[in-house]
Design a protein that fits this description.
mainly alpha; two-stranded antiparallel ribbon; 12 helices; 4 strands; globular; transmembrane; membrane; transmembrane helix
Length: 386
């Protein structure tokens, strides 16, 4: 079956979400479709989750704002990155009702892949790229909860977790405040459960719907190239329908958040690794290399795959224009086809997007490093002039 490597990670992800009881969707008994769960417990947890997530986000933003006002730069940077990740995950997964649009996209993709299950197609490079990122995302979603738990145990006031909001914390740094374990242990449990669930819920939509479907569309183009001439055009139009479905779902919420929020995570993580590594103690510092690797690999891998989809479809249509140049009807059919593209807002990803995105991230990181380096001199100059 095409994209069988993707299915392995999807099944693993759904097993974790089913264990957490925080997600309204589940795999059907035959393990080949996504369906709405009938569990009452999942329904109640799904109804309660948005309230808890908004409460947690309010507490986290308050902590980051306080650290920034008190000029605790290291803690403010650490909290800002985690808050940005929380916002991304909430944008992707926030909602009370099951996301039937996302469900229809992935089920259409799985149904389409089932048509080619007997075709022996070797894994192409886009499959390897995406499976590598899915493995990274699985590790990050699992490990981040334990890293954050260790961070809060070492430093009870680590931002932007609940301890920093509710405990009597010293300014910027200092000894841990005394805690009452009757309230402290539930607080640790709430922190761990929130981070663990929000990452698994948030990663599901971009990784297993947008990324996996885009990767399989590249596989479908490979199949179409090797198909008999009589079915090539009809199969390509079927892929166009799938492309329209994924763009209808992702262009408003998933892709704009991905293209704007993930570069911020990459820039801030790299900045802290270079400039503020001595202000963020272990194990909290591990979040920044983890964030940088995840954000950079997500941008590079997915934008490359989406660019390959656009380029390959453009080449196929160009070949067909020469191949079907004699028949009048076929020529009109080919002219009606358009290259496949992944859209975000009114734009789309082309072959130059990966380089443009990484150039932007590098430039922003360099600018922040120069600003941090010049800031003491600017302050000194102002004091002298006054």
């Amino acid at each position: 079956m095409l994209g069988s490597g993707y299915m392995k990670y999807l099944r693993h992800h759904m097993r974790v979400l089913n264990l957490l009881k925080c997600f309204p969707l589940e795999l059907s008994p035959d393990k080949e479709r996504i369906v709405v769960s009938k569990s009452r417990l999942k329904k109640y947890v799904t109804l309660f989750s948005p309230i808890y997530e908004l409460f947690y986000l309010f507490c986290a933003l308050s902590v980051v704002q306080s650290d920034w006002k008190n000029k605790c730069i290291g803690k403010a940077a650490e909290g800002a990155m985690i808050v940005n990740v929380i916002l991304l995950m909430m944008i992707w997964s926030f909602g009370i009702r099951p996301n039937t649009t996302a469900m229809s996209v992935i089920n259409s993709d799985l149904h389409f892949a089932d048509k080619f299950k007997d075709i022996d197609l070797k894994k192409i490079r886009t499959d390897r790229y995406l499976e590598m990122f899915m493995m990274i995302a699985s590790i990050v979603a699992f490990a981040s909860g334990f890293i954050n738990l260790g961070r809060v145990i070492v430093d009870h006031c680590a931002p932007p977790f609940l301890g920093a909001y509710f405990l009597q914390c010293p300014l910027c740094s200092g000894p841990n405040p005394t805690v009452n374990y009757v309230t402290w242990i539930p607080m640790l449990t709430m922190d761990f459960y929130f981070v663990f669930t929000i990452l698994h819920k948030g990663f599901f939509y971009p990784v297993h719907i947008v990324f996996a479907t885009t990767g399989r569309m590249v596989d479908y183009l490979e199949v179409i190239k090797k198909s008999p001439s009589g079915v090539k055009l009809s199969r390509y139009r079927s892929v166009q329908i799938l492309e329209a479905q994924i763009n209808d779902y992702s262009r408003i919420r998933v892709m704009p958040a991905f293209m704007s929020g993930v570069p911020f995570v990459e820039v801030l993580s790299l900045f802290v690794i270079i400039k503020l590594h001595d202000q963020v103690p272990l194990p909290g510092f591990l979040l920044f290399p983890e964030g940088f690797i995840t954000a950079a690999s997500a941008l590079i891998v997915y934008e490359t795959v989406a660019a390959i989809l656009n380029t390959k479809s453009f080449q196929i249509i160009g070949t067909w224009k020469q191949q079907f140049c004699r028949g009048k009807v076929k020529r009109r059919e080919v002219r009606s086809l358009r290259p496949l593209m992944v859209k975000f807002g009114s734009n789309y990803i082309d072959k130059g997007t990966p380089l443009v995105t990484q150039d932007f991230c590098i430039n922003q990181t360099v600018s922040m490093l120069l600003m941090k380096r010049q800031s003491p001199n600017v302050v000194k100059a102002r004091i002298t002039s006054s």
